[in-house]
């Protein structure tokens, strides 16, 4: 597009009268930090008077471009991989009124600084619960039944005949499952695992949730007891100062040698060196990770050398329907904030 640098695109305003979008106001400008699903971009482009500039790439916007493009905008639609800190807020200036992140997590946002400046924040909870829970179960099954390792044996010629103990793993029937963080995703995971014949659910978190736990007969226990008694541990908690690094050497040393660890929350909930040692030394049987530190994980990282560790590239919400819904919600959060109206999902600071 003439006059637009490589990687950037201007999304034209339709000029059509699209109901509530009409009230955004003629001077409102928005920067979208990545190529997002078309449905979300369409919501913004149809907002009369909303000028949208997008970093039109699957790859993250370079830091220098981000600092340049946020200058003077009223709205910012970002992703969880965009670090929105004081430097970005300073670059944006006092006109920035709304930040909408296309994610359920918000640890990439400098919330204290954002609150000081009176900027509203929208996020996208609920809509990715089912997709992430499904992925958590798939990852657990892949790790405990050694599916990637078994598939590789087929491709490499390692499959020679049926053998009684070859490729044996661990089943869910009559097991104890420990869930760290019985929020929306944790509940959805338990709901999906229960029909597998799980005998008992344990959970831990900031406090007991008796009404929520009743559906699964789940027992609230300290983290140490959860580690000691669980055959499977699934981490679905939010990243907070209290949860950062909580799955560490002490935690893994308490787990059974036959237990399987799964993390679909945030990479820094886990001390990765301690996890590597636990897997390499046989302290635990296997692990499945959809999140790591850093992301992407370097291809020479020690965890990738282990056959008993299944690692995915943070695809918990990666279904077409979920990502489309997230994009639309992020766009509607942004527009509602620009209009000074209640957002569909606003983070209360």
Describe the structure in your own words.
Helix 5 crosses helix 7. The radius of gyration is 23 Å and the shape is elongated. By secondary structure, the protein is of the alpha/beta class. Helix 1 links the parallel strand 2 and strand 3. The chain contains twelve helices and 14 strands. The strands form two sheets. The chain has a seven-stranded mixed sheet. The chain has a seven-stranded parallel sheet with strand order 9-8-7-10-11-12-13, sandwiched between helices.
Query: Can you count the beta strands?
Result: 14
Helical content (DSSP H or I, runs of 4+): 25-40%
Largest sheet: 7 strands, mixed
pLDDT < 50 runs, ≥5 residues: 1-6, 12-25
Structural class: alpha/beta
State the separation between the terminal residues, measured CA to CA: 39 Å
Order of helices and strands: EEHEHEHEHEHHEHEHEHEHEHEEHE
Strand line-up across the major sheet: 1-3-2-4-5-6-14
Mean pLDDT, to the nearest integer, reads: 92
Number of helices: 12
Strand content: 15-25%
Q: Report the radius of gyration as a whole number of Å.
A: 23 Å
């Amino acid at each position: 597009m003439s006059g637009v640098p490589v990687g950037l695109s201007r999304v034209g305003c339709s000029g059509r009268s699209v109901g509530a979008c009409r009230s955004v106001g003629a001077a409102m400008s928005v920067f979208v930090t990545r190529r997002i699903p078309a449905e979300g971009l369409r919501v913004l482009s149809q907002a009369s008077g909303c000028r949208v500039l997008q970093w039109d790439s699957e790859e993250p916007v370079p830091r220098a471009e981000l600092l340049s493009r946020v200058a003077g905008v009223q709205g910012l639609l970002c992703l969880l991989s965009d670090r929105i800190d004081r430097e970005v807020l300073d670059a944006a200036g006092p006109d920035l009124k709304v930040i909408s992140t296309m994610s359920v997590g918000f640890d990439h946002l400098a919330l204290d600084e954002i609150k000081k400046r009176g900027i509203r924040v929208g996020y996208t909870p609920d809509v990715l619960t089912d997709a992430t829970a499904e992925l958590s179960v798939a990852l657990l099954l892949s790790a405990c039944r050694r599916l990637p390792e078994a598939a590789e044996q087929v491709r490499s010629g390692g499959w020679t005949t049926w053998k009684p103990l070859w490729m044996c793993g661990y089943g869910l029937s009559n097991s104890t499952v420990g869930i760290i963080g019985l929020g929306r995703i944790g509940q959805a995971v338990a709901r999906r695992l229960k029909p597998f014949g799980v005998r008992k659910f344990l959970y831990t978190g900031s406090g007991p949730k008796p009404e929520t736990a009743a559906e699964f007969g789940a027992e609230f226990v300290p983290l140490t007891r959860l580690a000691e008694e669980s055959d499977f541990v699934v981490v679905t908690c939010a990243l907070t100062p209290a949860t950062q690094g909580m799955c560490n050497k002490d935690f893994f040393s308490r787990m059974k040698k036959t237990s399987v660890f799964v993390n679909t929350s945030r990479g820094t909930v886990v001390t990765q060196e301690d996890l590597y040692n636990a897997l390499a030394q046989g302290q635990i049987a296997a692990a499945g990770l959809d999140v790591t530190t850093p992301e992407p994980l370097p291809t020479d990282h020690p965890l990738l050398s282990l056959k008993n560790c299944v690692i995915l590239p943070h695809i918990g919400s990666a279904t077409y329907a979920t990502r489309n819904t997230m994009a639309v919600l992020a766009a509607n959060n942004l527009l509602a904030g620009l209009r000074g109206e209640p957002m569909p999902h606003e983070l209360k600071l």
